[in-house]
């Protein structure tokens, strides 16, 4: 992987101003079409969910079962990705619609909304890809960068990643509990217990809804509904895992140490988002089903802009990357997924993976950042 060109302080600030200008242009243009888009997707999710549950409840044949699972999975994917994730980022707070309020929205998964707003909106988007600060780097269990220290459990990283994919909503739900800190003695049990209360309350509600109440309403069809709900949840989990990992951990994405981002300003933050994210190429339907996280670069740059605007923003961002000789990491879904899989396999082993040349480049880059910070002071 070739290193990005090191920018001067003036160039970095100019890049930041250009990205601010893109953001301002979108903010000025927000209006009825943005509201209609999200409301249309909400209607689609509701109709798809209702159709899926009806097919599971009243059907008796395999075809209606498969169609029911598919329709319900589609509803859950849309609700989590394009609706819940984006609404909870504050992308529609400007509408002042209570149904689109980022602080009160609660989505259809076991992760409590307030937990996610802290671990994702604050921690991940503030400290993106900073080793030891961004807890989304490997989610506390997986080694996704050679900068992370190797641990014995990383030998079973590939099956662990598969388990996380199947149960991804549970991994996200438990993420803010900081179980790794409790296991290492850094967090007392009393604090873990306090953190667990909202998660356990939300998990009880989701389990009761999908695996008790809904099957009970189906009477003799209860086993079919139970199985259908479980499969729809697994389909949503695997899809979400794949999209998120392809946007964060394929080849070409950079990770940072705390010293590299010391005294960082907004323009530096923009530059880190460009270098620490990756896009996935696909059709408009693919982008919609990903919650437009297929445009992860644009999302990390502008997390509170309506995600449906990312495809129109992308060419401008890509042009700036070309102008300033910065990476714009993108690829097809199979390519990015294969890259993530190779990385997880390679980093499961206790071997050095960064070449001497790359280490030298990184050292020079870090030294240059320190020099720039000194000049700024």
DSSP helix count? 15
Strand order of the largest sheet: 1-2
Distance between the termini: 32 Å
Radius of gyration, rounded?
A: 22 Å
Question: What number of structural domains do the residues give?
Answer: 1
Structural write-up:
The chain is mainly α and about 375 residues long. The chain has one domain (about 10-345). The chain has 15 helices and two strands. It has helices at about 10-30, 30-60, 60-90, 115-125, 155-165, 170-175, 180-185, 190-215, 220-250, 265-275, 285-290, 295-300, 310-325, 335-345, 355-375, and strands at about 280, 330. A two-stranded parallel sheet has the order 1-2. The longest helix has 29 residues, at about 190-215. The protein is globular and about 70 Å long. The two termini are about 30 Å apart.
Features:
377 residues, mainly alpha, two-stranded parallel sheet, 15 helices
In a few lines, what is going on in this structure?
By secondary structure, the protein is an all-alpha fold. The chain is 63% helix and 2% strand.
Map the helices and strands.
Elements: H1 9-29, H2 32-58, H3 62-88, H4 113-126, H5 157-166, H6 168-175, H7 179-183, H8 189-217, H9 222-248, H10 266-275, E1 279-281, H11 284-289, H12 296-301, H13 310-323, E2 330-332, H14 333-346, H15 356-376
Parallel strand pairs: 1-2
